[in-house]
Write a structure and sequence with these properties.
Layout (H helix, E strand, L loop, with lengths): L2 H54 L12 E4 L2 E3 L7 E3 L11 E5 L7 E9 L6 E9 L5 E7 L2 E12 L2 E5 L20 E10 L2 E10 L8
Antiparallel strand pairs: 1-4, 2-3, 4-5, 5-6, 6-7, 8-9, 8-10, 10-11
């Protein structure tokens, strides 16, 4: 074998090795993408299930003036008083993420609230979905449910002319009004979650009907 044949053979081997390396990177990237999507989907479905249970079981406790469900635009929950929102602006609002709470006649889980908040520092900052409840001493506590949350957008559905019409939280009145629907008339909730893990993203939307009517007129 002369020098030219050796060079040609080496070049061919290098090209084959480059193709194998490139294919390996593509396979790894594909597997990484699939693993990230599975993780994000699993986390999102877990969170949606918990929020759905709270929504579907919402009912106003007897004698309570607090509605069975309320949503607030670009907000988190107060750590001082149940059912109180904290309005946030800018990057702290987590892409204008909404927050909501539900009440229930059952004493064990009579209050549940969900909101998104950024935690961590610098490059390790991550959006976290929190569940706020009351402990046995009726003190508020926040438990992290899932990470990688970019935003949570919520709409409320009202039955009008035989179909469900969707409203943004700011369009709903906290007092009786002829011009705007009232929280007590909410029939369904639509939740849109956006998650991001590295370069991989996922968006899920789910609609839940409120099963139990309010005990208040």
């Amino acid at each position: 074998m002369n020098l030219l044949e050796i060079l040609i053979s080496s070049l061919a081997g290098s090209l084959i090795l480059m193709n194998l390396t490139q294919s390996g990177h593509q396979i790894y990237a594909s597997l990484d993408q699939q693993a990230a999507k599975v993780t994000l989907q699993s986390e999102a479905l877990q969170a949606l299930q918990m929020m759905g249970e709270a929504i579907q079981m919402a009912s106003t406790p007897k004698g309570s003036k607090i509605p069975r469900l309320m949503i607030k635009d670009s907000a988190s929950m107060s750590n001082a008083q149940a059912g109180q929102f904290q309005i946030r602006k800018g990057s702290a609002s987590m892409d204008s993420s909404d927050a909501f709470f539900t009440t229930n006649k059952e004493e064990e889980m009579n209050y549940r609230a969900f909101f998104v908040q950024m935690q961590g520092h610098h490059q390790q900052r991550d959006g976290v979905l929190y569940l706020q409840t009351k402990n046995k001493k009726s003190q508020l506590q926040n438990d992290a449910l899932i990470g990688h949350v970019q935003s949570m957008q919520i709409q409320a559905g009202f039955k009008q002319n035989g179909s469900i019409q969707w409203y943004e939280p700011y369009q709903i009145s906290e007092r009786a009004s002829k011009n705007n629907p009232h929280w007590k008339a909410v029939k369904a909730i639509k939740i849109h979650l956006k998650l991001q893990k590295g370069r991989h993203s996922l968006e899920l939307e789910k609609i839940y009907a409120l099963r139990h009517p309010s005990t208040n007129p």
